[in-house]
Design goal:
The chain has about 220 residues and is of the alpha/beta class. The protein is built from seven helices and ten strands. The longest helix has 18 residues. It is globular, with a radius of gyration of 17 Å. The structure holds adenosine-5'-diphosphate (2 copies). The site of one adenosine-5'-diphosphate has 7 residues, from helix 4 and helix 6. InterPro entries: AAA+_ATPase, ABC_transp_ATP-bind, ABC_transporter-like_ATP-bd, ABC_transporter-like_CS, P-loop_NTPase. It comes from Streptomyces gulbargensis. Belongs to the ABC transporter superfamily.
Length: about 220
């Protein structure tokens, strides 16, 4: 009864199979790494899990619900329960919005915002990811790469998701900043117990953070 269950997933770009029969589970609260060389199909797998694309074949179940064929409104209702953090910390943020509004956005979208509970929740999320509350007033270009990625993580946590899909969340960051973000992710695992699919080509980082590591090569899992 896994939180995420992927079975025999196939994704094609034209005639080419970028993902070619991939099966794995992520249990509630479990952190699973997905590693492999550039171009092996990791991001494509993540995109299928997030329903950003439709696979040619196979099944993706979230808490028992089949996502590949799910209608738009049912998918929207499930969205708060699985969230994502992308590689480029700035690309995920709107350039003209203050940090506090970026973090509030998923709460507003999913009807979880109220004037009484919203602002303290944003302050709590900033604190959760190790950011000073004063940073809430800043715009994305006024943040360092590490700070921007922490905002992305706070935003992803806002709806209290059960699953996080992290696609190379540290790869665009300076090595000196990377360790801080990895430590934050481990701390979140310990304190919140969010199930996580952690995609990276950095095998050492993944070993450090994950309960279990899957290795991908040319569209297939090898180990
Ligand atoms: P990874 O995340 O492991 O680097 P990707 O999932 O991004 O790998 O890519 C898997 C394969 O699919 C690669 O050969 C890549 O060139 C190809 N690919 C990825 N996205 C597209 C796309 N939108 N159109 C065509 N081919 C793509
Ligand atoms: P504890 O049981 O150790 O007090 P909680 O589960 O209450 O831990 O969470 C600690 C803090 O994190 C609380 O302030 C809570 O509101 C917040 N929190 C809990 N779950 C999530 C989540 N999924 N995303 C973001 N924040 C959360």
């Amino acid at each position: 009864n896994a939180l995420l269950q992927v079975r025999d997933l196939v994704v094609r770009y034209g005639a080419r199979r970028a993902v070619d029969g991939v099966s794995f589970d992520v249990a509630a609260g479990e952190t699973v790494g997905l590693v492999g060389p550039s171009g092996c199909g990791k991001s494509t797998t993540a995109a299928a899990v997030l329903r950003l694309l439709r696979p040619a074949a196979g099944s993706v179940r979230f808490d028992g619900t089949e996502l590949t064929t799910l209608g738009a409104s049912a998918l929207r209702a499930l969205r708060p329960r699985f969230q994502t953090v992308f590689q480029d910390p700035y690309a995920a943020l709107s350039p003209r919005r203050r940090v506090r509004d970026q973090i509030a956005e998923p709460l507003r979208i999913h009807g979880l915002w109220s004037r009484a509970d919203g602002p303290p929740r944003v302050a709590e999320l900033l604190d959760r990811v190790g950011l000073d509350p004063a940073l809430g007033e800043r715009l994305p270009h006024e943040l360092s790469g590490g700070q921007a990625q922490r905002v992305g993580i706070a935003r992803a946590l806002a709806t209290r998701p059960e699953l996080l899909v992290l696609d190379e969340p540290t790869s665009a960051l300076d090595p000196s900043v990377r360790a801080g973000i990895l430590n934050l992710l481990m701390d979140l695992q310990d304190t919140l117990g969010v199930g996580t699919l952690f995609i990276s080509h950095d095998r050492a980082a993944v070993r450090h953070v994950c309960d279990r590591v899957l290795t991908m090569r040319e569209g297939r899992l090898t180990a």
